[in-house]
Amino acid sequence: MPDTALRKIGVKSLKMIEHVVLFIISIATVYAIGEEILHMFNIKTVQLADLLLLFIYLEVLAMVVNYLESGKLPIRMPLYIAIVALARYLILDMKGMDDWRVLAISISTIVLACTVIVIRWGQLKLPYPKNKDMED
């Protein structure tokens, strides 16, 4: 078997594994969304923390869709998820946190937001050159 044929089989196998894992992530996320909605119905109330958790799940699904459509994972999406997760953590546990922890989480959120801005600026002002090899 020539080297290129073996390489194609390897790439196809990895792509298949990639799609299976993306499917598992999607199913697990939809299941988690369903559990969260069921939880809100059971307690008969919707809190801000619940909505933020649903936004996190929504971002995970959007990240999977984006990856399937483009074959690329923009680094900004996990950063958005991290920002919302930190905000949710801060909202849920602020009463039990000491001042230093609140400050550390707040600074971390600001650093992540600045990172998103820098990455976005870099994409606009310093785009990657269009290269035929990179698209394949």
Question: Brief description of this entry?
Answer:
The protein is an all-alpha fold and 136 residues long. The protein has helices spanning 3-43, 48-70, 76-93, 99-125, 132-135.
Describe this structure in words.
This protein is an all-alpha fold and 136 residues long. It folds into 2 domains: 1-70; 74-136. It contains 5 helices and no strands. The protein has helices at residues 3-43, 48-70, 76-93, 99-125, 132-135. The chain is flat and about 65 Å long. The model has no long low-confidence stretch (mean pLDDT 89).
Given the C-alpha coordinates, what overall shape results?
Answer: flat
Residue windows where pLDDT falls under 50 for at least 5 positions = none
Based on CA atoms alone, the radius of gyration comes out at 20 Å
Q: Classify the beta-strand content into a percent band.
A: under 5%
Q: Helical proportion?
A: over 70%
Q: What is the succession of H and E elements?
A: HHHHH
Class of secondary structure makeup: mainly alpha
Number of strands: 0
- Describe the sheet with the most strands: none
